[in-house]
Specification:
The chain contains four helices and no strands. The chain is mainly alpha-helical.
């Protein structure tokens, strides 16, 4: 990933999409992604799951929390905007 950042430093803004596309095509092939994932998972399993650590459960709980927040945020934001518009119009907020 640092190669990507190093390459982006000297580019103009309009050159960035082409560079990122070329970088992704060269460095993010399905085989490479699969290899990286398998390596990460083997290391994670050895360090946390096989040791009986609490971290996998903690990661699961935090991931579910973050995912539920991301999924519900647009609806909550729309509700907030509607409430603000109602207040500006002098109507009841609910």
């Amino acid at each position: 990933m640092s190669k990507l950042v190093q390459g982006l430093k000297n580019l103009k803004v309009k050159e960035v999409p082409g560079y990122v596309q070329k970088y992704a095509g060269d460095n993010l092939t399905p085989a490479q992604l699969n290899s990286r994932y398998n390596g990460w998972y083997a290391k994670y399993k050895k360090e946390h799951i096989d040791q009986g650590s609490f971290k996998p459960l903690q990661d699961l709980i935090l991931s579910v929390f973050a995912l539920s927040y991301v999924i519900s945020w647009p609806k909550e934001y729309a509700h907030y905007k509607h409430e603000q518009e109602a207040k500006l119009a002098g109507a009841a907020a609910h």
